[in-house]
Amino acid sequence: MAPLRVLCVHGYRQDGSSFREKTGALRKLLKKHAELVYLNAPHCVPEAGGEEAPEKANGPGGNVDPRGWWFSDVQARRFSAVQPCEQSLGLEESVKAVREAVQIQGPFDGILGFSQGAAFVAMLCFLQEQKLEPEFNFRFAIFVAGFRSACEEHKRFYNSPLEIPSLHVFGLEDRVIPDNMSRELLLSFQGPQVLTHPGGHFVPAASAHRQTYQDFFKRF
Fold first, then answer.
1. 80 and 116 in contact (C-beta within 8 Å)?
2. How far apart (Å, rounded) are the C-alpha atoms in residues 109 and 165?
3. Which pLDDT score is estimated for 192?
4. Which of 19, 72, 131, 133 shows its CA 20 to 30 Å from the CA of 208?
């Protein structure tokens, strides 16, 4: 049986290449079950100042072309998961990037997102179920350190629970996206499956997590 093809959506201030490196353990864990394909966000992020830092994941990945899926601070072109805003910048271009990836590199069975990427994947699932993006045909979604956007114009994405099968993964010691933010995202999905781990802001791929991932993939 051919592995499931999964489109992978990186976090804020990461890129597809660095996310691929940082999820090496996950690729090894799932090699018989899934082929992971990595996408770059279309927006370059300005040089960080102060506390802003790339969203971390397990593993190396030192050379990063920092990118993002949208900005919550329109003027400064920056993003914070906890920053309320009326409007965002860049979301339409990011949806277009996913649409083109599906057209050129697809089809994909599922989609996986990390942190800001996971929040973005939830929006893509809404667009798919509302039939607003006919190119999208994801059979499942995986959210690692996901959350609901705090932007006012994004509230429409959370109007009703989505039917797409979903696996939500988050760390109980995550200081970037606290687990209560990931639990809030659960409310946007019908029958969400949950995998928690005792660590922080990364994609877990220890042997203890293998069965949960594999059982989820076996459904498809």
1. no
2. 12
3. 96
4. 19
pLDDT single digits (tens) 19-34: 999 999 999 999 889 9
The catalytic residues are: 115, 174, 201
Tokens of 198: 């005792």
pLDDT of amino acid 209? 94
Rounded to whole angstroms, how far apart are CA atoms 55 and 177?
10
